[in-house]
Predict the structure.
Amino acid sequence: MASGLRIDLSVSDPGTCPVARVSGESDTPATSVSRASIPDPEGRIAEEFTVGASATVPESDVSEVASYDSHTVYRFRRSREQPCVCERVETFGYPVSDVHASDGSLAITFHAPDLDAVQAIVSDLRERFGGIELRKLTEVDGDSTDLVFVDRSRLTARQREVVRTAYDMGYFEHPKRSNAGDVASELDVSRATFREHLAAAQRKLLDAILNA
């Protein structure tokens, strides 16, 4: 029986991504993003995206392809050397299945076999782009895709910081690489405060899992 993970993550600072930039400049979502698989003679990749027909898109490096009653399609070309969130994910061997942008942030969806693969991809993206946030991770088992493993939007910024620090320091490993005192010291809080934040975060995450 097939199994794996579906990952939905957002990137608030995707670098020079034209799709994200247009969604911020025109104040309208950009959807239906597609990319050519073969570069042109100059080695550039063609990409297209869709915005609402009423959107005003500055045509600095994008050009209108087609206009319909409800939406307009735009195209741009970029160098293979230009940083691209989707291409970074796909270097790990996992195609990006959905891309859209809103208010300058990029949102992507892809599938991976396990948490180790997800961690490697997220770490790679964090080295190259800003504001990486794992929005939703769904376990896929056979025909079932309704188990929400984690939704970070349930946590406050402080709770995310506590969980991330504890995770990076090996607090959740067996055997532990750090104890509560170590993590509390790194966060510059007392052990009691660390445990309080961690317990609150765990309650929210368990609620997401058990009541999905």
Observations:
- The chain has a mean pLDDT of 85.
- The chain is about 30% helix and 35% strand.
- The chain has two domains: 3-149, 152-210.
- The helical segments are 18-25, 85-90, 115-128, 157-168, 180-187, 191-210.
